[in-house]
Amino acid sequence: MLNVIYEDNHILVVIKPQNIPTQADITGDTCMVDMVESYLREKYNKPGNVYVGLVHRLDRPTGGLMIFAKTDKAAKRLSESIKTKDFEKMYLTVVNGEPRDKVATLTNYLKKSSRDNMVRVVPELTTGAKYAELSYETLEVKEKVSLVRVNLVTGRSHQIRVQMKHIGHPVYGDVRYGGDILAKGHNLALWSYKIRFIHPTTKQTMTFISLPPEDLVPWSAFNFKNIQL
């Protein structure tokens, strides 16, 4: 069932469950686009095609806030706001270890391999390399893991996971990038918890916050009530 937290005539803000793809892939599994389309078709009794504007993506194992456009105009304006950096995307993650710098900005060049679907940090002049930037702040440290807030400046595939691994602190539970040493089968600890954007038609600033599942490991190790988010 689709978890809708806001809806108007132009946009739909939902919570993406973990381990559901954003859009259709080779697995054939139900994806977020399918779920939104089914929701709109049923709610508004539309027998034909339903417009679903995919504005941004989350990796399959990542959960949290997503916004979809209900009209082509809204999709174009939101996509443009992402390009012009008027769309803020904030994440919470738990990483292995404690980053040396509590607050830092990471800039790298990333390249995705179609052979193994892995993203790697590469030299700037590498063919196909894309600039990637994020800033992070360590909010709390618990024994072998740290709760980190990430402001994603660019939106590259696997970006947070790859850049945090590159500084020696892979995301907890990340089997692909070496963060599963402590995880013991738990989900990837990466959550889209805050989005802020200009509404495509009203021009009002919209802010939405959704905390990760606090009763699940490793989130349960941290007291979110005492953390300024």
Layout of helices and strands, plus pairs?
Elements: E1 3-7, E2 11-16, H1 32-43, E3 53-54, E4 63-69, H2 72-83, E5 88-96, E6 103-112, E7 119-122, E8 130-142, E9 145-152, H3 159-166, E10 190-198, E11 205-209
Parallel strand pairs: 4-10
Antiparallel strand pairs: 1-2, 2-4, 3-4, 5-9, 5-10, 6-7, 6-8, 8-9, 10-11
Oligomeric assembly: single chain
Mean of residue pLDDT? Answer: 94
How does the helix and strand content classify structurally?
A: alpha+beta
Can you tell me the overall shape?
globular
**Strand tally, please?**
11
Describe the overall structure:
The chain is α+β, with helices and mostly antiparallel strands and 229 residues long. It has helices at residues 32-43, 72-83, 159-166; strands at residues 3-7, 11-16, 53-54, 63-69, 88-96, 103-112, 119-122, 130-142, 145-152, 190-198, 205-209. Strands 1, 2, 3, 4, 5, 6, 7, 8, 9, 10 and 11 form an 11-stranded mixed sheet that branches. A hairpin with an 8-residue loop joins strand 3 and strand 4 (63-69). The longest helix has 12 residues, at 32-43. The protein is globular.
Features:
229 residues, eleven-stranded mixed sheet, 11 strands, 34% strand, globular, alpha+beta
